[in-house]
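Moderator note: this is an archived Q&A kept for reference. The question asked for a predicted structure of one protein chain; the sequence and the answer are reproduced below.
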Amino acid sequence: ISELRAAYDEAENDDNIWLLIVTGTGRAFCTGADVGEIPKDGRVIYERPYLSTYDQWEAPQEGTPPFRRMAKPVLAAINGLCCGAGLDWITTGDIAIASDKATFFDPHVSIGLVAAREMVRLARVLPRNIALRMALMGKHERMSAQRAYDLGMISEVVEHDRLLERAHEIADIVNSNAPLAVRGTRLAIHKTLDLPLHEAEILAETYRERVVRTEDALEGPKAFMEKRAPNWQCR
């Protein structure tokens, strides 16, 4: 988790990185916490109260993208098993695609734990009864990649051997657009999801106003009129 958090910070501060791709290796994308690390007496799962720091109140899962404050988009390429905390990449990433071998489930109640953050977030992506079924049936309710696509949980199902290739194709398309406009659009959407519509529109317009003052905002129309590809400077 600490390595992932450092990677997000490094990528966010590197001007040469415009988009992040997150994927797994082997059979799994992410299976969440190691159940073997839970003490046998079950009394002390964490060394200190979990919500004991400001950072944890704001972003209770350090391994998943700090999506409320990151500007750069994250593409999740789900290569296999995705369960528990792995589901957070579905709800905190910006684009999620999956291998046709991917499966999704939440095992919390099957090991005696509350399905909290992961399913609270997922219930805002899935229909409520689907999210509840998944949460309450635990490890016994496994969702295929095609089913996840049909429900709008992911945006594309890809042949397993082409997953990373397709992720890079999508990344190239996103990166062909003006990077500051992409980041402003991303923030405008994420920052306004919980606001009433009119307030959301006003806040979103502030991101447009910021970007319209950049060099890239001049380059886009100029390139269009000159019938050439734009040369984005990210400034």
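Archived answer notes: Residues 197-212 form the longest helix (16 residues).
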